[in-house]
Design brief:
Length: about 375
């Protein structure tokens, strides 16, 4: 594409964005990231995943994003590196431990975890402070990690369903192990309450377990699929403390674009389903993300199939499979990238803001990071 033609396309998109975004800010990393993790309401942690030495950074979002009134009086519109460090290995998974200045990572090469101190007011250095031994078996992409607020910092981790364990960070003691003989590679781990967690497998199975008991986990079989070697990705949405099982919803997304939603009362059933309008391609376990909006009813975000992040509203879906169109599509990464080698740009990660309903962060394979607050222009919006 000629440079003038690219500039025209970029100009047209930014003009269009004035109508579709309340806020849009961009940042360029030296190397792309597959992880975006909130460390506070205004800061995130990112890290590279190349085979050589990588940066691990804590970024403060542009202050202008949070100036709901008199934005014109707020000059700070750039991301800022507030803490940084280096890792000799890729970072394929990263989780912040709530209530601490600590993150835990996995390199995708083994099931072991690395523990990092994010630093504080007296230091801007992120440094490694320890490790956690992994379990047997390594699925494609390594261990998945989950954490929740607890009196003593703990981390849930595992590469396969038979190796999921809850480990106390200070002592390294295993306080819970998922009891199952099936070694299904995991795609995700999620706490849906203080004690109950969900283990989503790449084959579509879902295990639901309670860390307070040694009882066998509840197992949900994979949804029916016509595709061969289909991969599945899972996310869980919990209501207040998940006291009502009907408020805890599970979404499963396949590499063919099929989406199935169920709840904890009947995880094997389907509350609704849809065929998403995505560019299906041959995917790896770490490529695709699906996530519930934490502060917006019935909305999910999907990325990894292309250079776009799509927002869907599941409120109109039924138990019958139907085609679904996105409520909103963020195409900024693909539009603003001018790749010299002709390789298309793909979104590598996205995350919703925990409190701002329509604010998301997304990262792409060209190293770009965007934070955007989208405008719902549909009459029947979420």
């Amino acid at each position: 594409m000629e440079e003038t033609e690219f500039d025209d396309i970029l100009d047209d998109w930014f003009i269009e964005s004035l109508k579709t975004y309340k806020d849009l800010h961009v940042y360029q990393l030296e190397h792309p990231t597959q992880v975006i993790e909130w460390t506070s309401g205004k800061t995130v942690c990112v890290a590279g995943f190349t085979s050589s030495k990588n940066e691990i950074l804590e970024l403060r979002l542009p202050l202008k994003l949070f100036a709901d009134e008199n934005k014109g009086l707020c000059a700070e519109r750039d991301f800022k590196v507030v803490h940084g460090g280096f890792t000799d290995a890729p970072v394929r998974c990263l989780r912040h431990i709530p209530g601490t200045r600590c993150v835990v990572t996995n390199d995708g090469l083994s099931s072991d975890l690395q523990v990092w101190d994010l630093g504080g007011d007296d230091s801007d250095v992120i440094r490694r402070t320890g490790s956690v031994d992994g379990s047997r078996g390594v699925s494609e992409g390594g261990s998945r990690i989950a954490a929740r607020l607890s009196s003593q910092p703990q981390v849930l981790h595992g590469a396969e369903s038979a190796g999921v364990r809850l480990t106390q960070l200070t002592s390294g003691q295993t306080v819970y192990t998922l009891e199952t003989d099936s070694a299904d590679p995991l795609s995700s781990l999620h706490f849906v309450s203080d004690a109950v967690f969900l283990a989503g497998c790449s084959n579509g199975k879902v295990y639901i377990a309670d860390t307070r008991t040694s009882a066998a986990p509840q197992l949900s079989p994979p949804p029916p699929s016509s595709g061969e070697s289909v991969l599945w990705w899972t996310d869980a949405s919990a209501g207040p403390s998940c006291l009502d099982p009907s408020s805890c919803r599970i979404v499963r997304l396949s590499s063919c674009g099929q989406t199935v939603i169920s709840d904890l009362r009947n995880p094997g059933g389907a509350v609704s389903r849809a065929q998403l309008d995505v560019q299906t391609r041959r995917c790896n376990a770490d490529d695709v993300r699906v996530s519930w909006a934490p502060a917006l009813d019935d909305c999910i975000a999907v990325s990894g199939f292309s250079g776009a992040v799509q927002i869907y509203s599941s409120s109109v879906w039924t138990t019958e499979l139907q085609e679904a169109q996105p409520l909103f599509e963020h195409r900024g990464h693909a539009v603003s990238s001018q790749s010299d080698d002709g390789v298309p740009v793909f979104v590598t990660s996205h995350v919703w803001h925990p409190e701002r309903p329509r604010t998301l962060l997304s990262a792409a394979s060209d190293g770009s990071v965007h934070v955007w607050d989208w405008v719902d222009q549909s009459a029947a919006g979420c």
